Amino acid sequence: MRTSGKLESERPDDGVAAFFDGFVAAFATFDAARVAALYRLPVVAMQADGTVQCFATRADLERAFQAYLDGYRRDGASTCRWRDLDVAPIGGQAALATVTWDVLDAAGAQIRSWRESYNLVRTESGWRAMASIDHVP
Fold it and tell me: Domain 2-134: which topology?
């Protein structure tokens, strides 16, 4: 499955695209608690430089996201968008989803772009990320 903006799927109710739309909405608030709410603890994240972080508590995850969000804001970001979604189901309750992220300024100019993969799990609240890996160029 590959798309930009909408998921083309044999299962149109899978909601993976909606998960990323929710991420965009949370990012635009620059509120780490809203972004962190899209994750299921514990969370493992590998950055593009190869460093790996594990977040066992919501407070730790929120602190990390707030630092990222503050940095994006200092760089002039006002929003982000996702594109080029690839989804590979992992059974009925999980998926591997890969997207390209673009961080944009108020005029819509791209500040930063990268590709990232997420291990998602379906919860009562919808899809939640448990792990992410930044792709190394």
Answer: Nuclear Transport Factor 2; Chain: A, (3.10.450)
Q: Where are the domains of the chain?
A: 2-134
The whole-number mean pLDDT for each consecutive block of 10 residues of the chain, a chain of 137 residues, reads 42 77 96 97 95 97 96 96 94 94 97 97 95 92
Q: Retrieve residue 55's tokens.
A: 């977040």
Give pairs for 11-18: CB < 8 Å, separation 24+. 14/87, 14/89, 14/95, 15/126, 15/127, 16/85, 16/87, 16/95, 16/97, 16/120, 16/127, 17/85, 18/126, 18/127
Q: What is the pLDDT of residue 2?
A: 43
Q: Give the global pTM.
A: 0.87
